[in-house]
Design brief:
The structure is a single chain. 46% of the residues are buried. A five-stranded mixed sheet has the order 2-5-4-3-20. The chain is an alpha/beta fold. The longest helix is centred in the N-terminal third of the chain and has 14 residues, at 18-31. It is globular, with a radius of gyration of 21 Å. The chain has a single domain, classed as L-arginine/glycine Amidinotransferase, Chain A (5-stranded Propeller). The protein is built from twelve helices and 20 strands. The protein has helices at residues 18-31, 35-38, 44-53, 62-71, 117-127, 142-153, 173-176, 204-217, 246-250, 256-264, 309-321, 373-383, and strands spanning 2-3, 77-78, 102-108, 132-137, 161-165, 179-182, 188-194, 221-227, 234-235, 240-244, 271-275, 290-294, 297-301, 331-335, 341-343, 347-349, 357-359, 362-367, 388-393, 409-412. Strand 7 (188-194), helix 8 and strand 8 (221-227) form a beta-alpha-beta unit.
Length: 424
Protein backbone atom coordinates (compact mmCIF):
# COMPACT_ATOMS: atom_id res chain seq x y z
CA UNK A 1 0.00 0.00 0.00
CA UNK A 2 1.40 3.38 -1.05
CA UNK A 3 0.75 6.67 0.75
CA UNK A 4 2.03 10.22 0.42
CA UNK A 5 2.14 11.61 3.95
CA UNK A 6 4.31 14.14 5.77
CA UNK A 7 7.79 12.74 6.48
CA UNK A 8 9.10 13.61 9.99
CA UNK A 9 12.73 12.88 9.19
CA UNK A 10 15.57 15.47 9.01
CA UNK A 11 15.77 14.93 5.27
CA UNK A 12 17.58 18.24 4.79
CA UNK A 13 20.59 16.73 6.59
CA UNK A 14 20.97 13.85 4.18
CA UNK A 15 24.06 13.97 2.04
CA UNK A 16 23.20 14.61 -1.60
CA UNK A 17 25.53 15.27 -4.53
CA UNK A 18 26.07 19.01 -4.95
CA UNK A 19 23.78 19.58 -7.99
CA UNK A 20 20.94 17.58 -6.45
CA UNK A 21 21.46 19.28 -3.08
CA UNK A 22 21.10 22.70 -4.67
CA UNK A 23 17.98 21.63 -6.54
CA UNK A 24 16.29 20.20 -3.45
CA UNK A 25 17.15 23.05 -1.04
CA UNK A 26 14.00 25.06 -1.88
CA UNK A 27 11.94 21.92 -1.25
CA UNK A 28 13.32 21.52 2.28
CA UNK A 29 12.58 25.17 3.04
CA UNK A 30 9.00 24.67 1.92
CA UNK A 31 8.43 21.48 3.92
CA UNK A 32 10.62 22.07 6.99
CA UNK A 33 11.97 25.05 8.97
CA UNK A 34 15.42 23.68 8.20
CA UNK A 35 17.06 27.12 8.12
CA UNK A 36 16.11 27.60 11.79
CA UNK A 37 18.54 24.87 12.72
CA UNK A 38 21.42 27.15 11.74
CA UNK A 39 19.71 30.49 12.37
CA UNK A 40 17.16 29.90 15.17
CA UNK A 41 14.75 32.66 16.20
CA UNK A 42 16.68 34.96 18.55
CA UNK A 43 13.94 37.37 19.65
CA UNK A 44 10.24 37.27 20.50
CA UNK A 45 9.48 38.91 17.16
CA UNK A 46 11.44 36.30 15.24
CA UNK A 47 9.80 33.47 17.20
CA UNK A 48 6.35 34.90 16.49
CA UNK A 49 7.23 35.14 12.80
CA UNK A 50 8.45 31.53 12.84
CA UNK A 51 5.21 30.31 14.40
CA UNK A 52 3.06 32.31 12.00
CA UNK A 53 5.00 30.98 9.01
CA UNK A 54 4.39 27.37 10.09
CA UNK A 55 0.75 27.75 11.16
CA UNK A 56 1.40 27.35 14.91
CA UNK A 57 -0.40 30.45 16.23
CA UNK A 58 -4.00 29.35 15.74
CA UNK A 59 -6.23 32.40 16.03
CA UNK A 60 -3.59 34.51 17.79
CA UNK A 61 -2.09 37.30 15.73
CA UNK A 62 1.64 37.49 15.16
CA UNK A 63 1.81 40.79 17.06
CA UNK A 64 -0.10 39.39 20.05
CA UNK A 65 2.24 36.42 20.11
CA UNK A 66 5.29 38.68 19.99
CA UNK A 67 3.95 40.80 22.85
CA UNK A 68 3.09 37.78 25.00
CA UNK A 69 6.51 36.18 24.56
CA UNK A 70 8.35 39.47 25.13
CA UNK A 71 6.45 40.22 28.34
CA UNK A 72 6.57 36.67 29.73
CA UNK A 73 9.80 34.94 28.68
CA UNK A 74 9.97 31.24 29.40
CA UNK A 75 12.35 29.89 32.01
CA UNK A 76 14.80 27.42 30.50
CA UNK A 77 17.25 25.29 32.44
CA UNK A 78 20.61 25.38 30.71
CA UNK A 79 22.80 22.31 30.36
CA UNK A 80 26.53 22.42 29.70
CA UNK A 81 28.22 20.37 27.04
CA UNK A 82 31.50 20.27 28.96
CA UNK A 83 29.97 19.05 32.23
CA UNK A 84 30.92 15.49 33.12
CA UNK A 85 28.81 13.22 35.33
CA UNK A 86 30.25 11.23 38.19
CA UNK A 87 30.88 7.55 37.50
CA UNK A 88 28.55 5.26 39.41
CA UNK A 89 29.95 2.56 41.69
CA UNK A 90 30.13 -0.89 40.10
CA UNK A 91 26.90 -2.11 41.64
CA UNK A 92 24.13 -3.77 39.69
CA UNK A 93 21.28 -1.53 38.59
CA UNK A 94 17.61 -2.50 38.75
CA UNK A 95 15.61 -1.22 35.82
CA UNK A 96 12.15 -0.37 37.23
CA UNK A 97 8.98 -1.40 35.46
CA UNK A 98 7.01 1.33 33.74
CA UNK A 99 4.10 0.86 36.14
CA UNK A 100 6.26 1.82 39.11
CA UNK A 101 6.16 5.44 40.38
CA UNK A 102 7.65 7.88 37.88
CA UNK A 103 8.85 11.37 38.72
CA UNK A 104 9.11 12.65 35.16
CA UNK A 105 8.66 11.93 31.47
CA UNK A 106 11.16 13.36 28.98
CA UNK A 107 10.12 14.59 25.51
CA UNK A 108 12.30 16.12 22.81
CA UNK A 109 10.09 18.75 21.22
CA UNK A 110 9.79 18.43 17.40
CA UNK A 111 10.69 22.06 16.69
CA UNK A 112 11.61 21.26 13.08
CA UNK A 113 8.44 19.23 12.42
CA UNK A 114 5.46 21.63 12.90
CA UNK A 115 2.82 18.99 11.97
CA UNK A 116 3.93 17.01 15.06
CA UNK A 117 3.33 19.84 17.54
CA UNK A 118 -0.35 18.86 18.15
CA UNK A 119 0.70 15.28 18.93
CA UNK A 120 3.27 16.45 21.48
CA UNK A 121 0.81 18.87 23.06
CA UNK A 122 -1.64 15.99 23.54
CA UNK A 123 1.06 13.94 25.28
CA UNK A 124 1.86 16.85 27.61
CA UNK A 125 -1.86 17.19 28.31
CA UNK A 126 -2.06 13.52 29.31
CA UNK A 127 1.17 13.34 31.34
CA UNK A 128 1.29 16.65 33.25
CA UNK A 129 -1.53 15.83 35.72
CA UNK A 130 0.44 12.83 37.04
CA UNK A 131 4.15 13.54 36.42
CA UNK A 132 6.55 16.33 35.59
CA UNK A 133 7.14 16.78 31.87
CA UNK A 134 10.70 17.67 30.86
CA UNK A 135 10.81 19.13 27.35
CA UNK A 136 14.18 19.10 25.64
CA UNK A 137 14.66 22.17 23.48
CA UNK A 138 17.25 22.27 20.70
CA UNK A 139 17.78 26.03 21.13
CA UNK A 140 16.70 28.05 24.24
CA UNK A 141 14.69 30.60 22.24
CA UNK A 142 12.28 27.90 21.04
CA UNK A 143 10.95 27.48 24.59
CA UNK A 144 8.96 30.73 24.32
CA UNK A 145 7.13 29.42 21.28
CA UNK A 146 6.50 25.96 22.69
CA UNK A 147 5.13 27.36 25.96
CA UNK A 148 2.85 29.72 24.04
CA UNK A 149 1.64 26.83 21.91
CA UNK A 150 0.92 24.71 25.00
CA UNK A 151 -1.02 27.57 26.60
CA UNK A 152 -3.33 27.49 23.57
CA UNK A 153 -3.57 23.72 23.14
CA UNK A 154 -3.39 22.23 26.63
CA UNK A 155 -5.45 22.72 29.78
CA UNK A 156 -2.81 21.10 31.99
CA UNK A 157 -0.93 23.04 34.63
CA UNK A 158 2.21 24.25 32.88
CA UNK A 159 3.94 24.46 36.26
CA UNK A 160 4.44 20.72 35.71
CA UNK A 161 6.35 21.45 32.50
CA UNK A 162 10.11 22.03 32.63
CA UNK A 163 12.10 23.30 29.64
CA UNK A 164 15.64 22.02 29.32
CA UNK A 165 18.18 23.23 26.79
CA UNK A 166 19.45 19.95 25.37
CA UNK A 167 20.94 19.83 21.86
CA UNK A 168 19.86 16.64 20.08
CA UNK A 169 19.80 15.38 16.53
CA UNK A 170 16.23 14.08 16.47
CA UNK A 171 13.08 13.43 18.49
CA UNK A 172 13.35 9.72 19.34
CA UNK A 173 14.29 10.15 23.00
CA UNK A 174 13.17 6.61 23.87
CA UNK A 175 16.12 5.23 21.98
CA UNK A 176 18.92 7.63 22.84
CA UNK A 177 17.71 9.11 26.14
CA UNK A 178 18.94 8.23 29.63
CA UNK A 179 18.12 4.74 30.84
CA UNK A 180 17.47 5.56 34.49
CA UNK A 181 17.71 2.68 36.93
CA UNK A 182 18.00 2.37 40.70
CA UNK A 183 20.91 1.01 42.72
CA UNK A 184 20.58 -1.17 45.82
CA UNK A 185 19.90 1.88 47.98
CA UNK A 186 17.17 3.17 45.65
CA UNK A 187 19.28 5.99 44.22
CA UNK A 188 19.02 6.90 40.54
CA UNK A 189 21.77 5.83 38.14
CA UNK A 190 21.91 6.59 34.42
CA UNK A 191 22.94 3.70 32.18
CA UNK A 192 24.43 4.83 28.88
CA UNK A 193 24.75 2.57 25.83
CA UNK A 194 26.22 3.72 22.52
CA UNK A 195 23.58 5.12 20.19
CA UNK A 196 24.54 4.94 16.50
CA UNK A 197 21.91 2.98 14.51
CA UNK A 198 21.48 5.26 11.49
CA UNK A 199 24.45 5.60 9.17
CA UNK A 200 22.83 8.36 7.08
CA UNK A 201 22.10 10.87 9.85
CA UNK A 202 24.17 12.73 12.44
CA UNK A 203 23.81 11.13 15.89
CA UNK A 204 26.62 12.51 18.03
CA UNK A 205 24.37 14.88 20.00
CA UNK A 206 21.80 12.14 20.60
CA UNK A 207 24.55 9.80 21.77
CA UNK A 208 25.88 12.46 24.17
CA UNK A 209 22.46 13.34 25.57
CA UNK A 210 22.29 10.80 28.48
CA UNK A 211 25.59 11.85 30.05
CA UNK A 212 24.81 15.55 29.56
CA UNK A 213 21.41 15.04 31.18
CA UNK A 214 22.96 13.04 34.04
CA UNK A 215 25.61 15.70 34.68
CA UNK A 216 22.94 18.41 34.81
CA UNK A 217 20.93 16.44 37.36
CA UNK A 218 24.02 15.25 39.26
CA UNK A 219 23.15 11.60 38.72
CA UNK A 220 26.03 9.10 38.38
CA UNK A 221 26.49 7.14 35.15
CA UNK A 222 27.31 3.52 34.32
CA UNK A 223 28.42 2.58 30.80
CA UNK A 224 26.74 -0.36 29.06
CA UNK A 225 29.16 -1.88 26.56
CA UNK A 226 26.57 -2.31 23.82
CA UNK A 227 25.33 -0.50 20.74
CA UNK A 228 21.67 -0.49 21.72
CA UNK A 229 18.47 1.58 21.84
CA UNK A 230 15.97 1.99 24.66
CA UNK A 231 13.02 0.94 22.50
CA UNK A 232 14.28 -2.62 22.47
CA UNK A 233 14.03 -3.40 26.15
CA UNK A 234 11.13 -3.95 28.52
CA UNK A 235 11.65 -4.62 32.23
CA UNK A 236 9.18 -5.85 34.83
CA UNK A 237 11.41 -4.52 37.60
CA UNK A 238 11.30 -7.95 39.23
CA UNK A 239 13.96 -9.89 37.37
CA UNK A 240 12.63 -10.19 33.80
CA UNK A 241 13.85 -8.36 30.69
CA UNK A 242 12.30 -8.67 27.23
CA UNK A 243 14.08 -7.82 23.97
CA UNK A 244 13.70 -8.63 20.30
CA UNK A 245 16.51 -10.34 18.43
CA UNK A 246 17.17 -7.03 16.65
CA UNK A 247 20.55 -6.91 18.40
CA UNK A 248 21.65 -9.88 16.28
CA UNK A 249 20.50 -8.13 13.11
CA UNK A 250 22.64 -5.15 14.09
CA UNK A 251 25.65 -7.29 15.05
CA UNK A 252 25.69 -10.87 13.80
CA UNK A 253 28.51 -11.72 16.21
CA UNK A 254 26.22 -11.11 19.19
CA UNK A 255 24.63 -14.28 20.54
CA UNK A 256 21.96 -14.44 23.23
CA UNK A 257 24.66 -15.62 25.65
CA UNK A 258 26.97 -12.70 24.87
CA UNK A 259 24.05 -10.28 25.17
CA UNK A 260 23.20 -11.81 28.55
CA UNK A 261 26.80 -11.44 29.69
CA UNK A 262 26.89 -7.76 28.72
CA UNK A 263 23.55 -7.02 30.40
CA UNK A 264 24.47 -8.91 33.58
CA UNK A 265 27.52 -6.68 34.05
CA UNK A 266 25.20 -3.69 34.61
CA UNK A 267 21.61 -4.75 35.29
CA UNK A 268 20.13 -6.76 38.13
CA UNK A 269 17.87 -9.39 36.56
CA UNK A 270 17.39 -13.15 36.35
CA UNK A 271 15.81 -13.87 32.98
CA UNK A 272 15.93 -12.54 29.42
CA UNK A 273 13.15 -13.37 26.96
CA UNK A 274 14.03 -12.79 23.29
CA UNK A 275 11.31 -12.43 20.65
CA UNK A 276 11.59 -12.20 16.86
CA UNK A 277 11.89 -8.73 15.34
CA UNK A 278 9.59 -7.34 12.66
CA UNK A 279 10.62 -7.49 9.02
CA UNK A 280 10.47 -4.38 6.82
CA UNK A 281 10.45 -2.20 9.95
CA UNK A 282 13.51 -0.03 10.44
CA UNK A 283 14.06 -0.22 14.21
CA UNK A 284 13.40 -3.90 14.95
CA UNK A 285 12.49 -2.84 18.49
CA UNK A 286 10.32 -4.89 20.79
CA UNK A 287 8.04 -1.96 21.66
CA UNK A 288 6.55 -2.20 18.17
CA UNK A 289 5.31 -5.75 18.72
CA UNK A 290 5.01 -6.28 22.51
CA UNK A 291 3.71 -4.17 25.40
CA UNK A 292 4.68 -5.30 28.89
CA UNK A 293 1.69 -4.24 30.97
CA UNK A 294 2.33 -6.04 34.27
CA UNK A 295 4.52 -8.74 35.73
CA UNK A 296 2.13 -11.34 34.27
CA UNK A 297 0.40 -9.34 31.53
CA UNK A 298 1.59 -8.68 27.98
CA UNK A 299 -0.12 -7.27 24.91
CA UNK A 300 0.97 -8.40 21.46
CA UNK A 301 -0.17 -7.67 17.93
CA UNK A 302 -2.38 -10.37 16.46
CA UNK A 303 -0.85 -12.20 13.46
CA UNK A 304 -3.07 -10.45 10.92
CA UNK A 305 -2.22 -10.79 7.24
CA UNK A 306 1.18 -9.36 6.38
CA UNK A 307 4.77 -10.40 5.78
CA UNK A 308 5.10 -10.41 9.61
CA UNK A 309 2.23 -12.82 10.20
CA UNK A 310 4.49 -15.71 11.14
CA UNK A 311 6.74 -13.62 13.40
CA UNK A 312 3.75 -12.18 15.21
CA UNK A 313 2.31 -15.68 15.65
CA UNK A 314 5.66 -16.90 17.00
CA UNK A 315 5.84 -14.00 19.43
CA UNK A 316 2.37 -14.66 20.80
CA UNK A 317 3.05 -18.38 21.18
CA UNK A 318 6.43 -17.74 22.83
CA UNK A 319 4.89 -15.51 25.48
CA UNK A 320 2.01 -17.94 26.11
CA UNK A 321 4.55 -20.67 26.81
CA UNK A 322 7.05 -18.54 28.76
CA UNK A 323 7.07 -17.54 32.42
CA UNK A 324 8.54 -14.51 34.09
CA UNK A 325 11.60 -14.72 36.33
CA UNK A 326 9.42 -15.76 39.26
CA UNK A 327 8.00 -18.68 37.32
CA UNK A 328 4.52 -17.23 36.71
CA UNK A 329 2.92 -17.54 33.23
CA UNK A 330 1.79 -14.59 31.17
CA UNK A 331 -1.74 -13.64 30.26
CA UNK A 332 -1.50 -12.60 26.62
CA UNK A 333 -3.89 -10.08 25.04
CA UNK A 334 -3.92 -9.63 21.26
CA UNK A 335 -4.26 -6.16 19.75
CA UNK A 336 -5.51 -5.50 16.20
CA UNK A 337 -3.02 -5.65 13.34
CA UNK A 338 -2.91 -2.74 10.91
CA UNK A 339 -1.70 -3.07 7.32
CA UNK A 340 1.80 -1.93 6.54
CA UNK A 341 2.22 0.87 4.01
CA UNK A 342 5.06 2.58 2.18
CA UNK A 343 5.25 6.35 2.57
CA UNK A 344 6.33 7.90 -0.75
CA UNK A 345 7.42 4.42 -1.79
CA UNK A 346 10.58 4.78 0.33
CA UNK A 347 9.67 4.45 4.00
CA UNK A 348 8.14 1.25 5.33
CA UNK A 349 5.62 2.20 8.01
CA UNK A 350 4.47 -0.30 10.64
CA UNK A 351 1.68 0.95 12.92
CA UNK A 352 1.42 -0.75 16.27
CA UNK A 353 -0.88 -0.31 19.25
CA UNK A 354 1.79 -1.79 21.56
CA UNK A 355 3.86 1.42 21.34
CA UNK A 356 2.24 2.94 24.44
CA UNK A 357 3.46 4.61 27.63
CA UNK A 358 2.43 3.71 31.18
CA UNK A 359 2.86 6.52 33.69
CA UNK A 360 1.46 6.80 37.21
CA UNK A 361 -1.92 5.16 36.65
CA UNK A 362 -2.37 6.24 33.03
CA UNK A 363 -1.66 4.54 29.71
CA UNK A 364 -1.14 6.70 26.63
CA UNK A 365 -2.15 4.49 23.69
CA UNK A 366 -1.39 5.43 20.08
CA UNK A 367 -4.32 5.53 17.67
CA UNK A 368 -4.20 6.11 13.92
CA UNK A 369 -7.64 7.22 12.76
CA UNK A 370 -8.57 3.64 11.84
CA UNK A 371 -11.70 1.59 12.53
CA UNK A 372 -9.66 -0.72 14.79
CA UNK A 373 -8.72 2.09 17.21
CA UNK A 374 -11.74 1.59 19.43
CA UNK A 375 -11.18 -2.16 19.73
CA UNK A 376 -7.55 -1.58 20.67
CA UNK A 377 -8.57 0.81 23.43
CA UNK A 378 -11.14 -1.70 24.73
CA UNK A 379 -8.51 -4.44 24.85
CA UNK A 380 -6.18 -2.15 26.80
CA UNK A 381 -8.96 -1.51 29.32
CA UNK A 382 -9.51 -5.26 29.70
CA UNK A 383 -5.80 -5.94 30.12
CA UNK A 384 -5.18 -2.99 32.45
CA UNK A 385 -8.50 -2.38 34.24
CA UNK A 386 -7.01 -0.26 37.04
CA UNK A 387 -5.56 2.30 34.61
CA UNK A 388 -6.97 5.30 32.80
CA UNK A 389 -6.58 4.63 29.07
CA UNK A 390 -5.90 7.79 27.04
CA UNK A 391 -5.83 7.71 23.20
CA UNK A 392 -3.11 9.75 21.50
CA UNK A 393 -3.48 10.43 17.78
CA UNK A 394 -0.21 9.33 16.15
CA UNK A 395 -1.38 9.31 12.53
CA UNK A 396 1.25 11.89 11.54
CA UNK A 397 4.02 10.89 13.92
CA UNK A 398 4.07 7.23 12.92
CA UNK A 399 5.48 8.25 9.54
CA UNK A 400 8.75 8.81 11.38
CA UNK A 401 8.71 5.16 12.43
CA UNK A 402 7.42 5.44 15.99
CA UNK A 403 4.56 6.50 18.23
CA UNK A 404 4.01 7.40 21.90
CA UNK A 405 6.56 5.05 23.46
CA UNK A 406 9.26 6.01 20.97
CA UNK A 407 8.74 9.71 21.71
CA UNK A 408 8.91 9.51 25.52
CA UNK A 409 11.37 8.44 28.20
CA UNK A 410 10.43 7.81 31.83
CA UNK A 411 12.46 8.77 34.90
CA UNK A 412 11.62 6.46 37.84
CA UNK A 413 11.24 7.97 41.27
CA UNK A 414 14.19 7.38 43.57
CA UNK A 415 13.70 5.18 46.62
CA UNK A 416 11.82 2.28 45.01
CA UNK A 417 13.60 -0.83 46.24
CA UNK A 418 11.45 -3.40 44.45
CA UNK A 419 8.66 -3.75 41.94
CA UNK A 420 5.14 -4.31 43.14
CA UNK A 421 3.47 -7.49 41.99
CA UNK A 422 0.97 -7.90 39.17
CA UNK A 423 -0.98 -4.70 38.65
CA UNK A 424 -3.48 -5.65 35.99
Amino acid sequence: MLRFNYVPYPLWRRYLPAPLGLLTRPLWRWLYPADAEIHPPATARQMARFMARWGLLGEMSEEDARRRMAEHPTTVEMTRGDALPQPAPSRLIRLPAQWEPMEAIILTWPVYYPPLWPLYASMVEAIAPVARVTINIARPTFANGVELYLMQHSTSDLKQVQFLYMPTDDIWVRDYGPIVGLDESGQQVVVHATYDPLPHYPQSQDNAMPTRWAAHHEIPVRALDLHAEGGNIWSDGAGTLLMSDEFQRRDSSLTVDSMLAALHKVFLFDKLIVTPHLQEEETGHIDLLVKLAGTQTVLVTEPGDSLNTERLRQTGELLRQETNARGYPYQVFELPALPQYFNWGLFSIWRSYTNSLTVNGRVLVPIYGESTDERALEIYQQAMPDYTIIPINCKVGINGGGAVHCMTKEVPRAGNHHSKDETS
